[in-house]
Amino acid sequence: xxxxxxxxxxxxxxxxxxxxxxxxxxxxxxxxxxxxxxxxxxxxxxxxxxxxxxxxxxxxxxxxxxxxxxxxxxxxxxxxxxxxxxxxxxxxxxxxxxxxxxxxxxxxxxxxxxxxxxxxxxxxxxxxxxxxxxxxxxxxxxxxxxxxxxxxxxxxxxxxxxxxxxxxxxxxxxxxxxxxxxxxxxxxxxxxxxxxxxxxxxxxxxxxxxxxxxxxxxxxxxxxxxxxxxxxxxxxxxxxxxxxxxxxxxxxxxxxxxxxxxxxxxxxxxxxxxxxxxxxxxxxxxxxxxxxxxxxxxxxxxxxxxxxxxxxxxxxxxxxxxxxxxxxxxxxxxxxxxxxxxxxxxxxxxxxxxxxxxxxxxxxxxxxxxxxxxxxxxxxxxxxxxxxxxxxxxxxxxxxxxxxxxxxxxxxxxxxxxxxxxxxxx
Length: 426
Hints:
The protein has 426 residues and is an alpha+beta fold. It is 34% helix and 15% strand. It is built from nine helices and nine strands.
């Protein structure tokens, strides 16, 4: 498949051979010198911690992350309203859901237009592309009957494109981000009617490196995007009148100075249907447990050391992830409408159902990175058996589609539905 000529030209021009270059986070613009200072200090402390994190984090995670995750989850549940009385896989829309989606779209649109020039607009979230790679998604044989729904109904191997990315909305040197990474998997050749009509043969799976989402619901998400528009996200979490400190603590437990996009687990964070009346979350777990050394720490590593680590690995060997599903067993302690609550494994263990295999390959040519910009990943690129659940998932259907339109109009590109047969000159 040929790339859009406008996109190919802008990348072949030499003006930005690796898409948008890394740059510092813009200064806070809260209108208050004191709040600006608080936001600046929080950024600097995070960036300092990232330089030393690898020296203590393995021991911390092994000894304390599990118990502290349970403790924070307990606090979050105590702070929640009483049991909503929902059944398994049951949803309950928010009263002002559409207004909140409008607010989020408005904030993201303003930020995209402020951060990026026409022709170079990036995604509002999961912004920095580390790489997009070919893969195969192999569904296992002999799964328990309750897991045999949708794409897991029978053994099958799907072609896939996998995009690994960093946090948004900025593109910073890797060591200066918040340690957040994401995965977007597009399966091809998936039969059945899709919930979004723009792609006929694909199914998307998206995940991030934290098992809970950064916001519990659309109301808190809308507030976070307003603070992000001011480049002062920390104020969302530390607001004395409506704080989200527990959400911040949970994110801090699971973000870290990353070593490679191939060496971290990714979680759906939000639930999906697994057949009729059954909800699940999915996750991707790296098959190998090794960690790539980060160059020059505690001094500054290369700006794109994560992409470089990924490229070195795939030049030598394949990488693989174990795909696991976790069924909802308790509608209150494993909620549908609150994405900040960790689903305990003691209530429902994660079960291996598939393997995501990434063969040896080069992937970091300008044309392949440009291809990543043209792809659209949306959880609603799926079939009815895997419909996204919860208020933040419902919002993504319209939010992702409208923000994709903003980006495409700025870049003068058209969406494409890949086949898996695309070829690129390396």
